[in-house]
Structure formats: C-alpha cells, structure tokens
C-alpha cells in the first residue's frame, strides 16, 4: 500500500465513505464545473460540431444563391454576412476547437498522465471559446453580422464608422470576438505545451511519443506565437473604426498593407495549426489498420516540425498581387516551394506505412486514405500558387476557393471524421455502425469532389470569388449547379454520421477493450477511461508501448501474441493495483486507489462569461456594460485565486 492508502486505511469508516463518494462528478451541473480533461474534450467536440452545422447551413445558402445565374435567394448584404460567418466559423469555431477536443482527450492518455498540467485553465479555454462564438453569432440579432470577409481586409473594415464602407457593428463584433477566441486558444496551447513537456510517463521520451502528440506540440507553439500579430491587427481595426486611428490611412502616414502582413503572418501558420492535427490523427490510424509500425517515424516527426518552422516564411504568397516588388516576391515564392518538401515526405511515409501491410478497410482507415488523396490534390494546386505569374492569374478567382477547401476540408475534415470513428469506442464505450460509417465516407468523397473540383475550372474561366451573383452567358451555370448538388451530398454525409451517433448511443454494441488491436497507451485503459485515467502510471519501454505488451516476435521474426494477462488488464482498470498517489496532487479523491484529482470549479465559467460582457461594452461603447463585465471578471478571478485547489477531507 502507498502512503496515501495507509492514511485512508487508518481513518474512521465515516471519513472513508466521505472520501470515496462522488464529488460533483455526475449530473448536468457537473459539466459546468468539471475540470476533467475528458469531459472538457467532449464539450469542445460537441460545441465545435454544432458550429460546424451552423457553418454548413451558411455554406448551403451560399451555394443555393450561386446555383443559377442572377440568384435571388440572398441579397448582396446577406450573402456577404453568410460568406464572412461561414469562413470565420470553419476556421475559428470548428478547426481549432476540434483539434483542441482531440488534444484534450488524447494527450494525457497517450503520454500516460492523469490530467493536463492546468485543469482549470483548460476549462477556461473551453468557456472562452463558447462565449466568444456566441458573441460573434449574436451579431445577427444586434444590428447585422460581420460582412467584410473572414480575413477582414482594410481599409474596407477599418474606415471610421462615420464614413465607413461597412456601416453597422458587424466588423466590431468580428474583431472583438476573434480577440476573445485568441485568448482561449493561447490558454489551451500553453496548457498542452506544459503537459507534453513535463507530464510524460516514465520512459516516455520525446522520440517515443505518438505522432499525434508531436503534432499537437508543434501546433501549440504555432498558436502561442501566431495569435499576438493578428490580435494587434484586430485592435488596430477596432481603434480605426471607433476612434479614428490612422494605422492604415496613407494620408496620415499609415499603410493599408500593414494589416495584410499582420493577418497573414498569423494566417499562414494558421493553415498548419488546422492541418497538423489531421496529419497526427492519420499517423495514428494508418499503422493500426495496416498492422505495421509507422514508416519513418522520426522523419514524420521532423517533417512536422519543419512545416511548423517554415510556415512562418511563406505568408507573402497571399500578397503576390499587391505590388511588393520582385525581390520579396521571389524570396517568398521559393519558400513556398520549399515547404512542399516536408509535406511531400509525410505523404510518402504514409504510403510506405500502407505498403505491404495487412490492410483492414474499416471506416477510420477509409477516411485516412481519403485524407491522403484529397490533401495531395490541394497540395499540388498550392505549389501552383508559388509560381508568381500563375498566382496572379488565379488570385481572387474560384481556383483559390477550390485550393484551400481541398487543403482544409479535404485534409482536416476527412482526418477529423476518421478520428471520430476511430476513437468513438474509447470515448463512449460503444462501436459506431460500420455500414453507416462507410456510407458517410463515400457520400463525403463524392459530395466533396463534386463541390470543389469544378471550382478549379470556374477559376480558370474567370469566375471571381466573393461575388454574390453572376450573369448568364459566361458558361459558369453547369459547374455551379454541380457544386451546389455536391454541397447537399456533403450535408447528407454529415447527417448520416449524426444518425449513426444517435443510433449507437441507443442501440450500438458495447465496444471490446481493444476493438482495433491498437498500438498506443490510450487503449490500455477501459472504454471510457476512469476519471484518473491510469490506476498506476505505466512505465514505457517502447514507442508503440501497448502493441509491445501484446505481441512479441519468434525466432523467424513472426508476430506472436503474448499470453493473456501479460499486458495490463484493459477490461477493468479497477482490477489494476493501487497507484503511487501521484495524481497531479491537488484534488478530490479519485476512486479506491488513493488517487487525488483536481476539484471542480465554477470560476472558469464566470471568467469566460465576463469577456463577452466586456466585449459588448466595447462594441456599443457603453461604459456601464463595460464596467459590469470588468466587475464580473474581477469577481471570478478573485474567487478562482482564493478557492482551495483541493477539497479538504473531514477531520484532516
């Protein structure tokens, strides 16, 4: 018995019962106060998928408007609002939070930890995301949504309200809301960095970490360094609109291109913030369903790091048409070509993993293969944009729309759906229906390519992006109609997935302990894992630790399954022997193992709630609302600071 176990054994029975009873870990209210990384991940994922549905509806309305010439489904202003909100939603309210959802759930489990480093900061990141998203969407009901594009180019968005090109408060909601979301993203990123670098299980060296953990570490560093430039740009936009600041006014010594530099020095690393988690997910799925180790593990890891590093040197390829001069344009053209190298290396490593493997075409594997195919197409069109004359022809046409959807939707969303199917039994303990899963995949492949592949040809034929209608006679009618049909097929694919989830929750089969014959540590726990993850922190001796606890090789190099019981019992973690009392050390009793977990807290939610109240004060320049928000924020921060980090035991 550990010291903690001995201490509990000496207490009266009444005190033991008090210690072992649940501490606000069940019921609806527990979801508002939880600091359990797994519950927070489920909340992140559910909320992000709800925003995904909102962004999808916006996309369907956009496609309906463009399905025929001279469309009348939307007015010009309505189209601009939906166009802006669709892009903002998919980038800031779907891509980044869904990556945070996977990271929150999997990182501690994959590195053998019981929680993240800062559980309450983790919860704060979630509430800032929720309230920031609701704040931006509330603009629909408070005078009009943002309508200057998800990129918010100046001087369109920065001209003072008195003579503004974009009257109304929409751009203010957009600028203030994105600043808010940035706060949550940085909080989550810092948490991931500290967790990964400091809380790995014994023996879990950096080069034994799963690739997904590596990619999330790179993403976390990118987020920490990418958010400050765009935050500065957004503050300048707000100051220009509301107080007549001259950051972007050439007549007063400002520079309109300053905003583009600040935005895209964030915006291109942002592409990799969105795509690297998908690369990590695919790198976990392919070895499992090929029954092979990842080919060239170290090369895949260092390619991800190289992508993160080189991503800081390519932002100007978004600005080739702004007249920066041949020297700058040539330098960034070369850097854009260079970043294709580590990306291509990853693709060859994934193909090397599949080659010669015992492939099982389950739904997660199909989505991983779909990711490789669609992302490769997007990467090839991306290299075309590094060639400056070609880029000049493609700029502001639908070819660019096709390119970034092949990269972000074809990359991130395919990988995300693969991950959702792969880890669903781990999170919820039930297996998704395989037939519905494959139906979802094929609908998504067909719908995706029918939507976005024709846009390459629309771009070559000269259809400009960001226009709400077009006249007859340009030859764009058929391709636009095909794209609209494809968008509704994508919607049907998403609906199929939602039906699958609901059906599984009600009637789905219980997942076995190791349904995929997986390789990494998260599958050593029960499905779903207990609050404390591991009753005893595992000692890691191999890169694919769980796999090596299940298999060995005979004298001829053939895999041999080890006898039952050689690996940790994944069926019932309660049968594992008591832990060492090292649970992160600051919370309520986590079961019958002497493990103490962090205590729930309501204050992260109130800190998050204070930010949109302050935001409304800034948008409407109402100092009373601003004062209420500041007071709420100070109250919540003070309560957080003075709240005991642990629940005191009776008689302690």
Q: Main attributes?
A:
652 residues, mainly alpha, Cytochrome C Oxidase, Chain A, two-stranded antiparallel ribbon, 19 helices
| Global outline | globular
- Structural class, judged by helices and strands? mainly alpha
Query: What is the helix tally?
Result: 19
Work out the oligomeric state of the chains in this entry.
single chain
Give the helix proportion (percent range). Answer: 55-70%
SSE succession: HHHHHHHHHHHHHHHHHEEEEHH
The CATH topology of the largest domain turns out to be: Cytochrome C Oxidase, Chain A
CATH superfamily of the largest domain: Cytochrome c oxidase-like, subunit I domain
Question: How many strands in all?
Answer: 4
Number of domains: 3
Strand order of the largest sheet: 1-2
Note the gap between the termini.
Answer: 20 Å
Outline the low-pLDDT stretches.
Answer: 1-23, 568-592, 648-652
Mean pLDDT: 88
Strand content: under 5%
Radius of gyration: 26 Å
Provide a descriptive summary of the structure in words:
The protein is built from 19 helices and 4 strands. It is an all-alpha fold. It has 3 domains: 39-520, Cytochrome C Oxidase, Chain A (Up-down Bundle); 521-598, no CATH class; 604-652. The chain is globular, with a radius of gyration of 26 Å.
What's the layout of helices and strands?
Blueprint: H1 3-9, H2 13-20, H3 30-33, H4 37-66, H5 76-110, H6 119-137, H7 170-198, H8 211-243, H9 256-290, H10 297-310, H11 326-354, H12 363-385, H13 388-394, H14 398-428, H15 434-460, H16 477-507, H17 545-550, E1 551-553, E2 559-561, E3 587-589, E4 596-598, H18 603-619, H19 623-642
Helix pairs in contact: 4-5, 4-6, 4-16, 5-6, 5-7, 5-9, 5-14, 6-7, 6-18, 7-8, 7-18, 8-9, 8-10, 9-12, 9-14, 10-11, 11-12, 12-14, 12-15, 14-15, 15-16, 18-19
């Amino acid at each position: 018995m550990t010291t903690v176990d001995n201490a509990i054994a000496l207490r009266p029975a009444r005190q033991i019962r008090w210690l072992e009873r649940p501490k606000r870990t069940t019921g609806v209210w527990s979801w508002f106060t939880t600091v359990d990384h797994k519950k927070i991940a489920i909340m992140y994922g559910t909320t992000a998928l709800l925003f995904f549905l909102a962004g999808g509806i916006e996309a369907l309305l956009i496609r309906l408007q463009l399905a025929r010439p001279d469309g009348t489904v939307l007015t010009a202003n309505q189209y601009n609002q939906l166009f802006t909100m669709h892009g903002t939603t998919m980038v800031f309210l779907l891509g980044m939070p869904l990556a945070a959802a996977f990271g929150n759930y999997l990182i501690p489990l994959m590195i053998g930890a019981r929680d993240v480093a800062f559980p309450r900061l983790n919860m704060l990141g979630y509430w800032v995301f929720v309230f920031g998203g609701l704040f931006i969407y509330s603009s629909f009901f408070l005078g009009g949504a943002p309508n200057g594009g998800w990129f918010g180019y100046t001087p369109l968005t920065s001209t003072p309200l008195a003579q503004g090109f974009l009257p109304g408060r929409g751009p203010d909601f957009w600028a203030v809301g994105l600043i808010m979301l940035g706060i949550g993203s940085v909080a989550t990123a810092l948490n991931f960095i500290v967790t990964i670098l400091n809380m790995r299980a014994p023996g879990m060296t950096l080069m034994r970490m799963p690739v997904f953990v590596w990619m999330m570490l790179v993403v976390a560093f990118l987020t920490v360094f990418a958010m400050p430039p765009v935050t500065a740009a957004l503050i300048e936009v707000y100051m220009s609109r509301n107080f007549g600041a001259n950051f972007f006014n050439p007549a007063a010594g400002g520079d309109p291109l300053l905003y583009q530099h600040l935005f895209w020095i964030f915006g291109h690393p942002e592409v990799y913030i969105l795509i690297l988690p998908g690369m990590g997910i695919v790198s976990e799925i392919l070895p499992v369903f090929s029954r092979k180790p990842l080919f060239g593990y170290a090369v895949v890891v260092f390619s991800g790091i190289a992508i993160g590093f080189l991503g800081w040197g390519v932002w100007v390829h978004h600005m080739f048409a702004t007249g920066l001069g041949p020297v700058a344009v040539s330098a960034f053209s070369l850097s854009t070509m260079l970043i294709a190298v580590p990306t291509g290396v990853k693709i060859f490593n994934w193909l090397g993993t599949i080659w010669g493997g015992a492939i099982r075409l389950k739904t997660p594997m199909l989505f991983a293969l779909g990711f490789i195919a669609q992302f490769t197409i997007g990467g090839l069109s991306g290299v075309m944009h590094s060639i400056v004359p070609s880029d000049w022809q493609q700029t502001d046409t639908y070819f660019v729309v096709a390119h970034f959807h092949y990269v972000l939707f074809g990359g991130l969303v395919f990988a995300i759906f693969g991950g959702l199917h792969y880890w669903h039994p781990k999170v919820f303990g039930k297996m998704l229906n395989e037939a519905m899963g494959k139906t979802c995949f094929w609908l998504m492949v067909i719908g995706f390519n029918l939507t976005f592949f024709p846009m390459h040809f629309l771009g070559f034929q000269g259809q400009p992006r960001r226009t709400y209608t077009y006249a007859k006679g340009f030859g764009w009618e058929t391709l636009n109609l095909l794209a609209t049909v494809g968008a509704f097929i994508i919607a049907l694919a998403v609906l199929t997935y939602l039906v699958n989830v609901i059906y599984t929750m009600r009637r789905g089969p219980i997942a076995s302990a190791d349904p995929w014959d997986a390789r990494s540590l998260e599958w050593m726990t029960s499905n779903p894992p207990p609050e404390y993850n591991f009753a005893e922190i595992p000692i890691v001796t191999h890169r694919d630790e769980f796999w090596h606890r299940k298999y060995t090789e005979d004298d001829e190099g053939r895999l041999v399954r080890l006898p039952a019981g050689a690996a940790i019992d994944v069926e019932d973690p309660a049968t594992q022997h008591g832990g060492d009392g090292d649970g992160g050390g600051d919370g309520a009793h986590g079961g019958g193992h002497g493990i103490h977990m962090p205590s729930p807290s309501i204050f992260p939610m109130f800190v998050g709630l204070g930010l949109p109240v302050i935001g409304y004060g800034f948008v409407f320049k109402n100092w009373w609302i601003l004062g209420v928000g500041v007071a709420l924020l100070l109250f919540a921060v003070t309560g957080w600071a003075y709240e005991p980090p642990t629940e005191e035991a009776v008689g302690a």
